[in-house]
User: Fold this.
Amino acid sequence: MIIPPVQIAYPDWVDSLVDWDRRYTSDEEKMRLAIDLSRENVVRQTGGPFGAAIFDRGTGELVAVGMNSVVRLNNCTLHGEMVAFMMAQARLGCFSLRSDDGPVYEMATSCEPCAMCLGATLWSGVRRVLCGAHRDDAHRLNFDEGPVFPESLRYLEDRGIEIVHGVLRDEANAVLELYRTGKGVIYNG
Assistant:
């Protein structure tokens, strides 16, 4: 049996949306990019309503973006956060975004991470996570976010990962609603 290689690539619209040279200096600017990615993914019908972006916290440099690619690439692990982690680590040539003497990285994600993405957040090396929509907002669309408990978040925080909730939550929720009214595929419900 021949198994094709696993390849992960951005949809063709990414470079027209993302300004790779811009410096993102506020939490709102970072979250707005994650939300823009999620919205464009819905409008272009290239995936689910979730987007993420990873930044160098000190400089505001954009390192990588991610958008839900589960259906487009037939891979249940390709949530927006997972794609952002993979692309950031590929770009930087490392398996962890944490180092004792290097930059501190943070991620903006349009919705609080599911159980898989929360686990990957711990191992990714990011030190700060900005969340837009709440997991209950995604659950209203019948997305099953898995076993994420207050203790799960506390576990990450106890390991030095700051988590900020509700950044531009209404804007992030508008994308979830757009996906719902467009009858987007609920791929894990």
The mean pLDDT is 95. The CA atoms of residues 57 and 105 lie 5 Å apart. The chain is about 40% helix and 15% strand. The radius of gyration is 15 Å.
